[in-house]
Amino acid sequence: MLRTYCRRTACARPFLVLLLVLLCIASRVSAQDASASIAGTVVDPLGARMAGASVTLLRDREVLRVTTTDTRGDFSFDALFEGRYRIQASAVGFQVRTTSQIYLPAGARRSVDVSLPLGPLETDVTVTAAANDVLPSQIGAPVTVLDAHTLTVIGKTDVLEVLRLVPGSSLVQTGGRGGTTSVFIRGGNANFNKMLIDGIPANDIGGGIDLSPFATTGVERIEVLREANSVIAGTDALAGVISLTSRRGQTRVPDASLSLDGGNLGTHHESASVGGALTRFDYFSEFSHLATDNDLANNRYRNTTYAGRFGVAVGHNTDVTGTVRWIDKYYGSPNGISLYGTPDDAFQTNRTHLIGLGSQTQFTNRWQGAVRVGLSDQRAHFVNPTLSGQDISGVGFGDTVTITGANGYSSTGRGVVDFGTYDSLSRSARQGLYAQTTYQLTQGVSLSGGGDYEREQAFSDPDADPTTTRHNGAAWMEGRGALVDRVSVTAGLGYARIEGYASRYSPRLSVAIALRKPASDAFWSDTRLTFNGGRGIKATSATTVDRSLYNLLRKTAAGAALAANAGIGPIGPERGRNLDIGLEQGIWRGRARARVAYFHNEFFDLVEFVSRNLLPQFGVASDIAAAVGTGAYVNSQSFKAHGAEASVDAMFGGVRLAGSYTYLDAAVTKSLSSSVTPQFNPLFTGIPIGGFTALVGQRPFRRPGNSGSLLIAYTHRRTDVALTGYFAGTSDDSTFIVGSDINFGNSLLLPNRDLNFGYQKLDLSGAYRLHPRITWYATVENLLNQHYEPAFGFPGLPINLRTGVTIAVGGR
């Protein structure tokens, strides 16, 4: 199966050649040399060197040596044998920090810098806010990191549920578990977020991403950047970047576990994992299966996920890792039950395959580089086997229903649940090569640069030749460092060339100012002022490009001549710019942190479909508009989103308390199609309605003006308990029933303003270690049993209880 897949995606050759070369180099390295060494520097949260810090060398949890840093904060361990080591550093008033495992080949010399956090809440590094790993205290970017301990305590099986804890994020799930799920970050569209899995882009062509298939299987860490970063992440990162990092094997004795649980709604979940490390090699694999019937007819959901990560140390200073993630999903789609009263019999299957191979090399103590090959292949099969509802002249109508919005508007009628049968296949694939390098000019100043090449392909028939192929390239550079004491600056410039588009530059600037330096003996431990500004770009989907005004005209000689004479060029990328100003305060020696921020985002040149009757108002001549059939896609929409964000995070002993609140004010500032042709329902005289998109001056759909999150976690000896919550206020939306009632009219189209009800989702999880190797756990989702129903008629999942056990073996 893997051989067939690789042959179809042309992935086998570059992977095998690179792997064989690296393994050949590794085989030539002798393991008898005992002159290896580890040296490094211990720094405080602002990067200042710390003299007199205690540094311990660990191997298999055994203390080998202990030393202290000199007056410059430096330390070294010499005459070491080949093996896997950790460095643990500590100092009075600071938290103990232990590095991840370091493989030290024979004769090698490794450089390791260790930063000591002031309090227990500070994460080690962030990987989305800068070109190389950087301390959160040295950047101004708004980043949320959910580490392995947090993921374990909250007990979520789905990545989307974890993302509810991220400030400024709003998640919309169409129905029960498995329904298409989107995330809106700080008001941006759902396809404005770049999602990376070990650095491999997981987005569909055009930026779309359905979060529902992605399980927490094999995930070690989730990081979310809440701003544009098209400098490094490239296209699609208009509003944010979501980065998932897979687990790596750590133990000499294989660490294996088996989990089994079940609950109501026919829900059951199984997972098995194994990981370890042997000399130069490390490995980790996890397999999971989740199934539920949800609570509606034709709403079964099945998810099978395999996640693997494998590594090998090559030569003296090179680390090679490979990533595999296989996802198979089945989902029965009953359609909008609230709108039709009867379920559809449609269903879909999705397969998502991601493969990556990367190499990171430390050329010198100051110079490092990385190269990565990434492949993704996504296939979808949508089937509607029969005509659902009451068959009236070949159209399936639902039952008579009364729908009521949160705004108080109500209507009774029958809608079209089904226009007929269909069997649709689609596929998209991406192959990419990514490279970057960083040079440390001084202790606090670094310069990075890189580039990437991607080939994107879209298929109408998965087994046929692609209908669309795009070759894209990008280059970027970034500098980071301290201009003066207390001021850290990150500045970068990216350049992207997308086939069929004009080239675009994307600048970005991030500044962090320490108004109060970190102090381990003060109640107000540190104060930071941050500033971020930048631009981003996003390529459109292959379908949109194919049906753009330029491409439609090019399909005929006459149309091509019209385009040339009128100066009509290819459709352009969607663009955005953002601004973020924040103030962060550390409290009680870093045990608590509070942050408030103002953000302002603008998105423009957005693509929308414009009918040929409206194209002349876009400046298109009548004869050109007549040559494109029903209409075309053009860059004619824009909107803005600004607001305030507040969050607090505290840890006292075994108790962690975290919460966030976001106020969002968003409005469409330009939209050719919706502003010229609003819809009207005769029941609501004089109220213009956006049938498929928001009208100019209205809020974009599904962006609540008020939202928040909550985390209360308790860990003590054998017990873990966590309460998580997500809260959303009312939001604008549409029922999307335009010309689809019993009279093919708009009687079931309600006014957009505040159409969606606000809701609260509380989840409770707990675990108790019956034995060092046996853990009992339970989760209760939707503790309040709130049956949230958005305007488009997909009721959310009711209370769902699961309980089971995990059995672990090995792991020393």
Walk me through this protein's architecture.
The protein is mainly beta and 812 residues long. Helices cover 9% and strands 51% of the residues. The protein contains 10 helices and 42 strands. The strands form 7 sheets. The chain has a 22-stranded antiparallel β-barrel. Strands 2, 3, 5, 6 and 7 form a 5-stranded antiparallel sheet that branches. A 5-stranded mixed sheet has the order 9-14-15-12-13. A hairpin with a 2-residue loop joins strand 23 and strand 24. The two termini are 34 Å apart.
Distance between the terminal alpha carbons, to the nearest Å? 34 Å
Structural class: mainly beta
What is the count of DSSP helices, taking H or I runs of 4+ residues?
10
The value of Rg in angstroms is 27 Å
State the oligomer: single chain
- Overall pLDDT level: 87
User: In one word, what is the shape?
Assistant: globular
**Helix content range:** under 10%
Tell me the β content.
over 45%
Describe the main β-sheet briefly.
22 strands, antiparallel, barrel
Unreliable stretches covering 5 or more consecutive residues: 1-12, 21-31
The number of strands is 42
Task: Fill in the keyword field for this structure.
812 residues; mainly beta; 22-stranded antiparallel beta barrel; 9% helix
A few lines on this structure:
The chain has 10 helices and 42 strands. The protein is mainly beta.
